[in-house]
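Handout for the seminar on molecular recognition.
Each group receives one record of this type.
Step one: identify the two inputs.
Step two: read the structure output and locate the region that could contact pyridoxal-5'-phosphate.
Step three: write two sentences on what you found, then compare them with the reference statements printed after the record.
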Amino acid sequence: MNASVEKVTPYDQFNLPIPEDHFPEQGMSARAAAALVISEEWTDTNPMLNMSSFVTTYAEPEAMETAHRNIFKNYIDHDMYPHLFAMETRMVKWLHQLWNGPKDVEPYGTATVGSSEACMLAGLAHKWNWRTRRQSEGKDATRPNMVTGGNVQIVWKKFLRYFDVEPRIVPLKPGNYRLTAEDLDQYVDENTIAVVAIAGQTFTGEDDDIQGIHDWLDAYEKKTGHSIPMHIDGASGGFVNPFLYPDYKWDFRLPRVQSINASGHKYGLTPPGLGWVIFRERKVFNEELVFYVNYLGGEMPTATLNFSRNGFQIAVQYYQFLRLGFDGYKRVMQHTLDNAIALRKILVDSGYFTIMNETQRIPVVAVTLDSKITKFNEFDVSNKVREKGWVLSAYSMPPNAEAVKSLRVVVRPHINRNVAQILGNDIIGACRFLETHGGNATPPKLHAHATEKSSPAKC
Ligand SMILES: *Cc1c(COP(=O)(O)O)cnc(C)c1O
């Protein structure tokens, strides 16, 4: 054996340089490559401690095995993986029923990469439906607009810009962080393709005033003859409301609600890469948006923005629905909410914080420092608890509530009461330290682009 080869130990291999600006010329051993990748992962946040994200970070071993078994299945290839497609189709019906869709219709919907793709598809359907209707009435169909609150997630601003729909964004104000019917008369008109209302918003976790908006649109139709549909962005609330608040009408029970999206990878409890969009009935998803592609021996409809994508999330979502059932989701969401309420109480009782979301639906705790605290701000608290490993979002609210800064904790199912207590203590410990030593964090400058300055990308 060549002596020089023997002398190359793993220590030498792990120390190989990584090229910055050219493609690696020669390969290396599997162990060396893995060691290099792992060493770059070390200082990334531990996903479990990422309290700023809604996205699932825990799954049972059986769910992980399901993911591994399915990881090489291309979702779009229905011909090769008809049973993965059958799982998706069945889950579309389940969600349509869970969200109280009418019984006598053909449910329609699809799995997507996340709520973003789901929102885009819903937005497109409403744009197409609006245009078809306007054209059939011989009216101008060139100036579509969409009405949302200033609390919308960035995806809606993307949709509006990418698909050329005029943004009509109702600003927030200090003390009110949700879309209500109050100012709608200044925003809604005959060119409004839909009003988007959120169930479980990213900033404070609250729901928009869905019923109030619905009633306002009913009155508007009576007055003007313009019937305007609603889309519900239930990215988070879609997997909380049905289980915890069965009597609360946020969904297809309201006739104007024509489409709903939710993130399977948030409270749907699937690893990242899954969203859902469900339509009230088949005809809401405009047929012109459906493509029929030739697969081996057959025609397959496709109506997603992506073509190839990983299919494992669908199998895992199916596992979770079967594993937990309605009863299991209800229990998981209840304990998660209880832990959020416990954390909220610890923070409010400390005297440092005021709660921002009076109505607590999804398990999000959004607080702002009490106005008497001047020596440090929410960004200082976020930086300080980072020393303990926690990642907490601090942010300035969107216009016209920019003066309000917020600290947000997204409580997810893996946070048990014990961990909520430790986190609460660490946050209060950080406040005590900052009270003595002062803070110096300045809120990050927001992007200056006119339509985007209100959009920190909250997930
Ligand atoms: C997370 C979120 C989105 C975007 O969803 P992804 O699943 O991250 O693509 C849209 N709207 C709301 C309200 C969200 O919370």
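Reference statements: The first strand starts at residue 108 and ends at 112. The first helix runs from residue 3 to 6.
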